[in-house]
């Protein structure tokens, strides 16, 4: 079993990369909206991703975040 510090040390770079990819996707979407002056047709998916980010930001350790994300994504 890893210590909390070992988990952070071993997963930090991969997690940081994933978050940067997500931020870049949001930036590309916002740029496309600005460029075309219209929102995408399927904003339900975008809202789902925003809700997922909010869920991940919670610090409540009693919840299984991965399971909650699966339930959230199943709704779209």
Summary?
It is built from three helices and no strands. The chain is mostly helical and 76 residues long.
Task: Record the SSE blueprint.
Blueprint: H1 4-36, H2 43-57, H3 65-74
Helix pairs in contact: 2-3
Tell me the number of strands.
0
Broad shape:
flat
Q: Give the amount of beta strand, in percent.
A: under 5%
Q: Write the H/E string, N to C.
A: HHH
Can you offer a commentary on this structure?
- This protein is an all-alpha fold and 76 residues long.
- The protein has two domains: 40 residues, no CATH class; 36 residues.
- The protein has three helices and no strands.
- Helix 2 packs antiparallel against helix 3.
- The longest helix is centred in the first third of the chain and has 33 residues.
- The N and C termini lie far apart (35 Å).
- The model has no long low-confidence stretch (mean pLDDT 92).
Question: What labels would you give this structure?
Answer:
76 residues; 2 domains; 0% strand
């Amino acid at each position: 079993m890893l210590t909390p510090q070992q988990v952070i040390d071993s997963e930090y770079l991969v997690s940081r990369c994933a978050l940067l990819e997500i931020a870049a996707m949001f930036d590309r979407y916002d740029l496309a909206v600005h460029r075309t002056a219209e929102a995408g047709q399927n904003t339900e998916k975008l809202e789902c991703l925003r809700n997922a980010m909010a869920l991940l930001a919670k610090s409540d350790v009693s919840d299984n975040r991965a399971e909650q994300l699966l339930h959230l994504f199943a709704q779209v």
